[in-house]
C-alpha cells in the first residue's frame, strides 16, 4: 500500500496526515503522540476514528500540525485521519460520518471591532 495523505482544519490549526500500513505508531511533527499531546483526552480525540473502525494497530500515521492551539490541532488531526481512512476504504465513510468525524467544524473566532472591548460586547451606554 502506498502512502495516503489528507488534510484537516479546525479554527486556525491545519493538519497534514500521511497514512501507511504499519504497527499503529502515530508521529506528530517528529514527536510521539504521547509527547506532543500529554493530555489523555486529546490523545483519545485523535484516535477516535481509528478506534471506531478498529484499525488502531493497522496503520502508521505521520502528521504535520501547524497553527492554532492544542485543542484545535487535535480536532484538525482527527478530521485528517478520518479523511485518509475514507480514501483507503470508501465503505467506512458512513460509519465515520454518523459519528461526526467527517464534518469540518467551520467555527472561527469573530474579530474584535473598534470602539468595543470585545467582538460583541459593548461599553455600557450612559444617557446622561
Can you lay out the helices and strands and say which pair or pack?
Blueprint: E1 4-10, E2 13-21, E3 26-28, E4 31-32, H1 33-36, H2 40-53, E5 59-66, H3 70-88, H4 93-99
Parallel strand pairs: 3-5
Antiparallel strand pairs: 1-2, 2-5, 3-4
The stretches of 5 or more residues where confidence is low (pLDDT under 50) are: none
Q: Architecture, CATH level 2? A: 2-Layer Sandwich
**H/E element sequence:** EEEEHHEHH
Structural class: alpha+beta
N/C terminus separation: 74 Å
- The count of DSSP E runs of length 2 or more, i.e. the number of strands, is 5
Helix content: 25-40%
What's the CATH topology label? Ribosomal Protein S5, domain 2
The domain count comes to 1
Q: Quickly count the helices.
A: 4
Strand content: 15-25%
So what's the CATH class? Alpha Beta
Rg, alpha carbons: 18 Å
The biggest beta sheet, please? Answer: 5 strands, mixed
Outline type: elongated
Strand order, main sheet: write it out.
1-2-5-3-4
Overall pLDDT confidence: 94
Amino acid at each position: 500500500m502506498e502512502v495516503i495523505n489528507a488534510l484537516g482544519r479546525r479554527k486556525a490549526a491545519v493538519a497534514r496526515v500521511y497514512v501507511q500500513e504499519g504497527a499503529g505508531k502515530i508521529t506528530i511533527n517528529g514527536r510521539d503522540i504521547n509527547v506532543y499531546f500529554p493530555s489523555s483526552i486529546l490523545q483519545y480525540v485523535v484516535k477516535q476514528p481509528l478506534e471506531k473502525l478498529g484499525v488502531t494497530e493497522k496503520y502508521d500515521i505521520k502528521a504535520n500540525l501547524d497553527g492554532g492551539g492544542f485543542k484545535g490541532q487535535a480536532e484538525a488531526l482527527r478530521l485528517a485521519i478520518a479523511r485518509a481512512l475514507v480514501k483507503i476504504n470508501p465503505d467506512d465513510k458512513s460509519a465515520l460520518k454518523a459519528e461526526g468525524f467527517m464534518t469540518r467544524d467551520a467555527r472561527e473566532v469573530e474579530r474584535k471591532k473598534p470602539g468595543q472591548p470585545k467582538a460583541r460586547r459593548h461599553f455600557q451606554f450612559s444617557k446622561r
